[in-house]
Amino acid sequence: MQQRISVSPSEVNTYNRCETAHRFGYGHELSPLNVSDPLQIGLCFHEGAAEFYSSLNKFRAGELDDIEDCRWLANLQMERSLADFRYWEENVLAAKDAFNKYLDIIDTLEWEVLAVEDYVEYPVSDEINLHGVIDLAVRIKRAPADKKYLEGKVVLVDHKTCYNFFTYAELRLHAQLPKYVFIANKTMRYGEKVHGAIVNQIRWRHDARDKVRRSYIDGEDLTYEKQVNLVNEHVKTANRILERRHLPLSQWKDKATRVIDNKDICGKCDFADLCELEVNGASPNRMRTEIETYYQRKDLSYRETRKAS
Ligand code: SF4
Q1: Helix (H, G, I), strand (E, B), or coil: what is residue 124?
Q2: C-alpha 270 to ligand 1 mean position (Å)
Q3: CA angle 241, 26, 90 (to 5 degrees)
Q4: C-alpha distances out from residue 242 to 5, 188, 237, Å
Q5: Domain boundaries along the sequence of the chain
Q6: Nearest alpha carbon, ligand 1 atom 2
Q7: Closest ligand 1 atom to Cα of 262
Q8: CB-defined site of ligand 1, < 6 Å
Q9: Which of 13, 252, 265 to mutate to test the pocket of ligand 1 (most atoms within 8 A of CB)?
């Protein structure tokens, strides 16, 4: 029996963005106390969407009388985050606004919901499990004219809340959904083959004219070769991560590079102040104070090792 370790797509993405940010997040196991506004909006929206799509099944089963009850339950779910102070009120309002506008636009019965927030996992090497949470798995009931061939087929859906829409060229290179399709098909998670993926983008910007953009990724943009190649890329980076995990933190620090001076990456980095202090030669005490004031322990419970069969 050999132990496999789970390396998440988001850990791989963090490592590929900046090895030092990865060290702070996954070596020191830090997560910022104050989650950024866009992330709060995104998380809150996801909670509402999960509740809505779960409720749709209850409506179909006759447990809810009115489809509007699904909307009501979703809004209630988003408001719960106010009661336990997880998100700022303006971010909850922005998430609710985006969500309700989304529901006003979409055909709520276009999809049969097969799974919501579905945790999946698959061994991709002797040492590594790939895992993730699929926002939504659906069977398409009604599709736009150019996607009629997907009607009756199973697809995976990823909700993305954004300030500006991603272009299709950017989404085509998105690694997460092809990896999830790979796992779903290897495990026959939904009892049949998954035929494609949808990136469901919702703009939370108040003045945005277009609120929703659906991008279907299927056919020649979601080949089996693409899925395998992206899984192999995941394994390559995960192997490097495993080497780091075996090091004491002082050696991990010596190995980890910084992308410093990269406005796009450092400008959005949760560890920018900590990184600057470290570069500046701050004392261990000063570093500890910064960590105790602005960070909490990151939840990495998914890392627990599992036995390979
Ligand atoms: S500020 Fe830049 S270099 Fe420093 S950890 Fe963040 S991304 Fe890396």
Answers
A1: coil
A2: 8
A3: 135
A4: 9, 28, 9
A5: 2-32+234-308
A6: 266
A7: 2
A8: 18, 20-21, 258-260, 265-266, 269, 271-272, 275
A9: 265
Tokens read off for 175: 């690694």
Nearest alpha carbon, ligand 1 atom 1: 272
| Measured distance CA(82)–CA(93) in Å, rounded | 10
128 forms beta bridges with 5
Residue-by-residue pLDDT tens, the chain, 309 positions: 567 888 888 899 999 999 999 999 999 999 999 888 889 999 999 999 999 999 999 998 899 889 899 999 999 999 998 888 889 999 999 999 999 999 999 998 999 999 999 999 999 999 999 988 999 999 999 999 999 999 999 999 999 999 999 999 999 988 999 999 999 999 999 999 999 999 999 998 888 888 899 999 999 999 999 999 999 999 999 999 999 999 999 999 999 999 988 898 999 899 999 999 999 999 999 999 999 999 999 987 766 544 333
